[in-house]
Amino acid sequence: MKKIFLLFLFVFPSLIQAQQFAVTFGENLSKTPLDGRLMLFIADNNKKEPRKQISDDADSQLMFGINVDNWKPNQVQIIDSKAFGYPIRSVKQIPDGVYYAQVLLHKYETFHRADGHIVKLPMERGEGQQFNEAPGNIYSIPVKVTLKKASNQLIKLKIDQEIPPIPAPQDTKYIKHIKMKSKLLSKFWGRDIYLGANILIPEGFDTHPEAHYPLAIFHGHFPADFDGFSETPPPADMKTDDYSARFNIYGYNKIVKEEAYNFYKQWTSKDFPRMLIVEIQHANQFYDDSYAVNSANIGPYGDAITYELIPYIEKQFRGIGKGWARFMYGGSTGGWEALAAQIFYPDEYNGCFAACPDPISFEAYSSIDLYKYPNAYYYESPWKRTPIPGKRDYLGKVKCTVEDMNYHELALGDKTRSGGQWDIWEAVYSPVGSDGYPQRIFDKTTGVIDKKVAEYWKEHFDLLHILKRDWATLGPKLQGKIHIYCGDMDNYYLNNAVYLMEDFLKGVKNPTYGGEVTYGDRAEHCWNGDPNQPNYISRLRYNTMYIPKILKRIEESAPKGADLTSWKY
């Protein structure tokens, strides 16, 4: 019946009730049917491909998405007014004009999980869950189209391109790459699942075979390779016309390369502490990062990292292999992970240095109180709807609302499958729904908060609540290990939860927490605790900022008889 209807549309296009886009792909791209999220991108310019012009900010272009199941070669899929759109809801709202149109299929695979649920999700393919860069995704070349709302148009778009595989990074003298199959994660997902890591080994590693090293885990988003380290300086004639809109500065590309070279010089200098630095690759079916905890929807990543990956790395690269010699640091996602892993595995790690952490209390879930607010999109009022802000600059100017950000994600994918920030929080923290996908913390279209899900979040992943609830047993194991840094104008309001955590930590007794919480005046996201450098510099110095702090912690806390000499040369 559907085939007859589509043929009818092609033969009698004047009877179409609204603007529509007919999409096909050929057998050269796949002879078998495909599942996934089919996305249409519309841009009013051709500065970049439309698929690369979608963002939370005001300059975002348009996109619309639908699910496709068992989509066969040469079969027509129609994107029409029913497709959910962002920033506008429907294709029928597109103003008349000349645009550039492009379509892309973000492929889904079927997983038979150990919990009995069968789900369709995008497999991570080496790109860190970026839909517009994922190898194997298929897309069309942008074409110029003239859109007129008053006319009944059927615009045909042909998918004829495929994103190629990403070459694996190569080992160097200092940077090594490993990949290991996780038994825990493979069992959960019903297929082989791997963890990877990029490892920076110290100067003298090969010439000091007797040395065993402390381990520093730099948590963060998916690292394709070890970033921020370069054995060569930037070219003297390197162009500096690159503009960073985030930092309002020209030449930031050269600054980044200069900092990477400066780190290399420090790393190989005589007095820099000799340690292993590890960046973990744990992209998954929902995001570029697992949040390094055990999750009902994502799987036992906390156990897999702590009990499988870390010992594997320490054995292969001569780590000391004891909890007192393991440390964590990171910013944003990495900041939350460092603090969460320290709390959930208090004996396995000896300190966390958490910068601008994602919400560490759900009383301040960005700018939302999940326990008191009825709605995540609007402040409660009997007479008006005041939008809840989602992102700001250092002067407090709102860039987008929570609703904007979540509508963006809903266009990218339903059932928590967008690969976006709000959806990964939901995938990590929520219980599993009856359909096998994460239960919504709030309705994605209306913003209404589900208080039962919020209670689950509170008991399992609200880090402040967990510390308050369990301080009698956790406190003695965490004394001196918690260090938090945040800009007081964090773009995503993350400082609000840090204030709440600080109030608690400074008030605890038996024992006192023995760490530090500091803020950067008017500093935005990714401020890491350095009051002497602008944010665009300090964010490039996580390693050199925290390694000396780790050394100090080792000297203060190492147990009697610990190896404090083999790695000091």
TrEMBL record:
It holds the Pfam family Esterase. It comes from Arcicella rosea. Residues 1-18 form the signal peptide. Keywords: Signal. InterPro entries: AB_hydrolase_fold, Esterase-like, Mycobacterial_A85_antigen. The lineage of its organism: Bacteria, Pseudomonadati, Bacteroidota, Cytophagia, Cytophagales. SUPFAM superfamilies: alpha/beta-Hydrolases (SSF53474). Coiled coil: none annotated. This is Esterase.
